Amino acid sequence: VKHLLGIRDLTAEDIEIIFQTADQFKEVLNRPIKKVPTLRDTTVVNLFFENSTRTRISFELAEKRLSADVVNFSAGVSSVKKGETLIDTVHNILAMKVDMVVMRHSASGAPHFLARHIPASVINAGDGINEHPTQALLDAYSIRERLGQVKGVRVAIIGDIMHSRVALSNIYCLKKLGAEVMVAGPPTLIPKYIEEALDVRVCYHVKDALAWCDVANVLRIQLERQNRPLFSSLREYNLYYGIKRSWIDALQKPIVIMHPGPINRGVELDSEVADSPQSIILQQVENGVAIRMAVLYLLAGKKESFS
Ligand code: CP
């Protein structure tokens, strides 16, 4: 059984195969009929123990475009609320003959635990502060689409690095593909180990990070993962770290603006920047469907053509 638990486990060649497969699915998605019969014998359950808009809809659309049978599970309206464990929940769902599980969970390592205990393929749709592999794949794929390549591109990941699974997966993915990576934001939101352990540049001044980069991937403050706020107020965060139109205009060079969503407008990113021609935020969302189709297709081990 094959899984996608994190970018840390992938090679640059694996990522390139996913991108090439996604290229073909993008072509399918631009046709009048966007559906292929590839996974018509496959049942996928989307297990979401945490809120999601983009990832959940994107996986469901990817599965449906591949003609899989799809079941959606939300912990909030399930028997988890009556005390049922994760493993009991999953064994009961698998008893109904499910082939693949897409899971989001607030606990880091939850999909890895599941993968050790069930015979189905597991795809990590975000686990705690650990990894969000399909987000990193679609982010790098979107950079490749906009700039022609990822190798040598300078990417600044700006914001709440400490609590971000998007940051960690992006660092792994971008470095494997040969990008130069910087993390930037308040010192309280950048873990001390990150510079040495992950070999990335660290910058505490966002204007300097913008001056250095070709691409700024701006992250949300993950208040839900902070026991106590690690900065004084959202207003002050915006003042010192929120990306403003005037800062972008002052650069006198084009940079690409990215954000995984959901955006807190007026906190980490002002609307004039989020909605500007430099922003590829909605292209990221669009590419997410093709990337997730590619991941599902490759994990299902389909050898035949999907056209
Ligand atoms: N980017 C992302 O994971 O968004 P959602 O939380 O809405 O799925």
UniProtKB/TrEMBL annotation:
Residues 2-145 form the Aspartate/ornithine carbamoyltransferase carbamoyl-P binding domain. Heterododecamer (2C3:3R2) of six catalytic PyrB chains organized as two trimers (C3), and six regulatory PyrI chains organized as three dimers (R2). It catalyses: carbamoyl phosphate + L-aspartate = N-carbamoyl-L-aspartate + phosphate + H(+). Belongs to the aspartate/ornithine carbamoyltransferase superfamily. ATCase family. It comes from Thermoflavifilum thermophilum. This is Aspartate carbamoyltransferase. Its EC number is 2.1.3.2. Pathway: Pyrimidine metabolism; UMP biosynthesis via de novo pathway; (S)-dihydroorotate from bicarbonate: step 2/3. It is an enzyme of class 2 (transferase). Catalyzes the condensation of carbamoyl phosphate and aspartate to form carbamoyl aspartate and inorganic phosphate, the committed step in the de novo pyrimidine nucleotide biosynthesis pathway. GO terms for biological process: 'de novo' pyrimidine nucleobase biosynthetic process; 'de novo' UMP biosynthetic process; amino acid metabolic process. Carbamoyl phosphate binds at R54, T55, R104, H132, Q135, G261, P262.
